[in-house]
Design a protein that fits this description.
The protein has 111 residues and is mostly helical. It has one domain: Helix Hairpins (Orthogonal Bundle), CATH 1.10.287.3610. The chain starts with 5 loop residues before the first helix and ends with a helix. It has 4 helices and no strands.
Length: 111
């Protein structure tokens, strides 16, 4: 008998593998996790409100998602070629700019 959720289980395992790879190999991902942990600890220390928790957790999640997409794009372009090419530089720079834009916006939003 075929398990109905088998395909979903495999997808979740692959997603988990991608998360672990990102944590193990990407220094920026670890920095995001460290700073996110600091924000959570400070949230408990300062006894922030429910709404503030929602905002902080939403921003942490969005930042990690953007960093994960940036990491995936960089890995994809590296798989295409390791040689320097203007088009790949632009793709990587624009992907990194998405994270920078989010970080600046989140910082302004929290002021």
């Amino acid at each position: 008998m075929k398990i109905p959720f088998h395909k979903h289980t495999i997808s979740i395992k692959h997603a988990y593998d991608g998360l672990l790879w990102s944590i193990r190999t990407q220094p920026n991902y670890r920095v995001h996790l460290l700073l996110s942990s600091v924000a959570i600890i400070l949230g408990f220390t300062l006894a922030i409100s429910y709404i503030e928790w929602i905002v902080i957790l939403m921003l942490i999640t969005m930042g990690l998602v953007i960093e994960t997409l940036n990491t995936g794009l960089e890995a994809t372009t590296d798989a295409i070629t390791r040689e320097w090419r203007e088009e790949i530089k632009i793709a990587k720079d624009v992907s990194a700019a998405a994270m920078l834009t989010f970080a600046i916006g989140a910082t302004i939003f929290l002021q």
